């Protein structure tokens, strides 16, 4: 995808996510890999009103080389790119249900999203909870380094979800799946829920073409 097309895609997806209430105010940020480096949403920008010509441009080393000052969550985004060679986009939101899950004291920090439907297994996989750090703090980087080689998505404790994927579109789709699953998990909390069993999960993982 050309840099121009990627800029336009970031604006379109940002608007779509914001208008559907998936992140509020100036919360959340998007980034994507380009041939020369990265494009990211500017800090304190509203995802619903991005300007394609003012998006932040970073070189391969993450140095700000154009556009408005970048999201303060670059250490978070770059930790995914560093650990996942196939990652070409990172999406971070404060979506309500995934964030609610990130606040619960009794979720399994190694596996916060139970496999209740096939699509969360296919698109998202196991989601660990990463210990709380201040938004924008570089202290998140070693925590992501510890989990990102094996996980494309995480919940930042008491903060919100982060998803990486091989394209911006697939990162957004995975984020939407994560949010919808978190909603189902919370809707069915306290009920007797039938999870997918190990055989069903292995079958989904084997049939990676479904992804
Ligand atoms: O979600 C956010 C912080 O975690 C938003 O930060 P930015 O406005 O710097 O992108
Ligand atoms: Zn945030």
From TrEMBL:
Enzyme class comes to lyase
Report the InterPro entries cross-referenced here: Aldolase_class_II_sugar_metab, Aldolase_II/adducin_N, Aldolase_II/adducin_N_sf, OtnC
What cofactors does the UniProt entry give for this protein? Zn(2+)
Query: Which keywords are on file for this protein?
Result: Carbohydrate metabolism, Lyase, Metal-binding, Zinc
According to UniProt, the reaction catalysed is: 3-dehydro-4-O-phospho-L-erythronate + H(+) = dihydroxyacetone phosphate + CO2; 3-dehydro-4-O-phospho-D-erythronate + H(+) = dihydroxyacetone phosphate + CO2
- Per UniProt, what is one Pfam family of this protein? Aldolase_II
List the EC numbers from the record.
4.1.1.104
Keyword presence, Lyase? yes
| Domain Class II aldolase/adducin N-terminal, first and last residues per copy | 8-186
Write out the function statement from the record. Catalyzes the decarboxylation of 3-oxo-tetronate 4-phosphate to dihydroxyacetone phosphate (DHAP) and CO(2).
Per the record, the similarity remark reads: Belongs to the aldolase class II family. AraD/FucA subfamily.
Quote the protein name from its UniProt record.
3-oxo-tetronate 4-phosphate decarboxylase
